[in-house]
Amino acid sequence: MAVDTGSRRPGGARSSGRRKVAVVGVALSDCGRVDDATAYALHAQAARRALADSGLDRAVIDGIASAGLGTLAPVEVAEYLGLRPRWVDSTSVGGATWEVMAAHAADAIAAGHANAVLLVYGSTARADLKARRRTANLSFGARGPLQFEVPYGHTLVAKYAMAARRHMHEYGTTLEQLAQVAVQARANAAANPEAMYRDPITVDDVLTGPMIADPFTKLHCCIRSDGGCAVLLAAEDYVPDCASVPVWVLGSGEHVSHTAMSEWEDFTVSPAAVSGRLAFERAGVGPADVDIAEIYDAFTYMTLVTLEDLGFCAKGEGGAFVEKGRLLRDGELPTNTDGGGLSAQHPGMRGLFLLVEAVRQLRGTAGQGRQVRRAGGRLPEVAVVSGTGGWFCSSGTVVLGR
Predict the structure, then answer these.
(1) How far apart are CA 305 and CA 257, in angstroms?
(2) pTM value > 0.90
(3) Side-chain half-sphere of 232: how many Cα atoms within 13 Å?
(4) What does the pLDDT average to over 223-238?
(5) Where is the Thiolase C-terminal domain (predicted)?
(6) Nearest Cα residue to 27 out of 44, 3, 41, 39
(7) Contact by Cβ (8 Å): 360, 212
(8) What are the tens digits of pLDDT across the range 129-138?
């Protein structure tokens, strides 16, 4: 049964004239190794599956949000899908894009500017690399603030590595603790048939792997895959016609921090410290109410510091928090229950995958062997989804409830 979110935001009280908003459809496209499809085709596949999951007719979709593909995203994606939306969003803030878009879409639906908004993404990052259509290095260009860092080879992974080293220096966080994030993500992936890597790994496997950017070895870093996904949000009016159990948007927050590393005041604090606080306040819940967490994990340090900044443990205590098995599916705080970007899929801006997994878990449709059950065998009721973009440049956090 859906919880009463009448007094919460962004759904809001009916007396305010704002409608409640639910996620009514979610789906992944084919993921992992997909050599025979274009990124547009993955968009379409995910969109069709999400619409089928919702049980609604495509005619109800009057909004679309997309980024990362085409010259005029999301115009090109909408055209490819045969949609003519009256509400669009092309916000692009890296991996946090989709949580920020979900917040924008929920606000638009609540205010009556749209009725049903499709968030859709697809990428053939792995296939393009294998076919030599692109290189392995991700370049954000060398103009603007980046011109002061690019000449020194300060890559994306190096920026995260430097931040991790600062946390280790400041709080005594160890490599073994960071490695535990990867080990537990892989354990969660083991029961997920859609995960790209499912074989168990150990802390020693992580520590002895090839060095990528000190202190990160290969298994500290996300995998590279192909894949896409889609999420359909709709006004409460459409929920009775849906084939799926609604998952309600209870609250959201967003925040941007910096571009140049010299402008980042504290390498041990991510923008989730702000976006998370706003999301919890607007949802009317707190970290203690959360049953599952889906957190952007391009690198192990991202998971650890985001858990701190969302309030699941105090600043500097993330290492001790993660090493106790708390992130496992049957742990105290099941986190990245599909295996995350470290083991399941990571085709690029992975934030939308976090929303899909959270919704599946809250509905109770994650699948045999990997569905989270809380005390007494109950299904999870509240999930927090937090995306990170750039090198901790942006954050979007969404709180969902069943």
Answers:
(1) 15
(2) yes
(3) 33
(4) 97
(5) 253-402
(6) 44
(7) no
(8) 888 887 766 6
